[in-house]
Design brief:
By secondary structure, the protein is an all-alpha fold. It has 12 helices and no strands. 34% of the residues are buried. The structure holds a DNA duplex. Its cofactor is [4Fe-4S] cluster.
Length: 218
Amino acid sequence: MLKKQEIRYVLDTMAEMFPEAECELTHKNAFELTIAVVLSAQATDALVNKVTPGLFEKYKKPEDYINVPLEELEQDIRRIGLFRSKAKNIQKLCRSLIDNHNGIVPQERDELVKLAGVGRKTANVVTSVAFGEPAIAVDTHVERVSKRLGFCRWKDSVLEVEKTLMKKIPENEWSDTHHRMIFFGRYHCKSQRPNCPECPLLELCREGKKRMRKTASA
DNA sequence: CTCCCGATAT
DNA sequence: ATATCAGGAG
């Protein structure tokens, strides 16, 4: 596990590597962001960003999503994958916004997670990115980076990972480091071919050193 | 836990 | 061919 001093070094190094890390899902408001994050489950941001421009041109308000047949919405998001469940969730989500929230995306995490298709991770993204609340959304990248680097234990659940990160990182740095960890995981500490040879954190990364030994002897 | 699912990288 | 992608519902 990383020591306090090492965590400071990791955070500073990531800040140097990705100084302008931010949400890469294109959106113009909280509603579009919510839809985009729901769509992004098990899909790349790049793919979602190919679909959402046309989608947001056609569907501007919650009413627009429920005023078309489910099959039509399914076809409009088909390329992203998991399209049947996502289309259904989006229509339920929009009905709930209209019925319970005056057509507006609520700011409270407790209310956000009640929406169809919105779990803890999506709620954290929305509160953080759209409403400026400190939060650490643990997605596949944050989880992988945290475990490889030793912020937490390999067996920890995503909720445990989030709790540990919140405890070990100052609250005013949550949102920035959250995005930097995503960039670090997406572009450097990748799942399939992590760039350990050029990693400035290799010396304190147990997983990285293990991988280097493996490739050296192969 | 399984299922949902197409696009892309390896 | 297979693994992975800003996960969540049942």
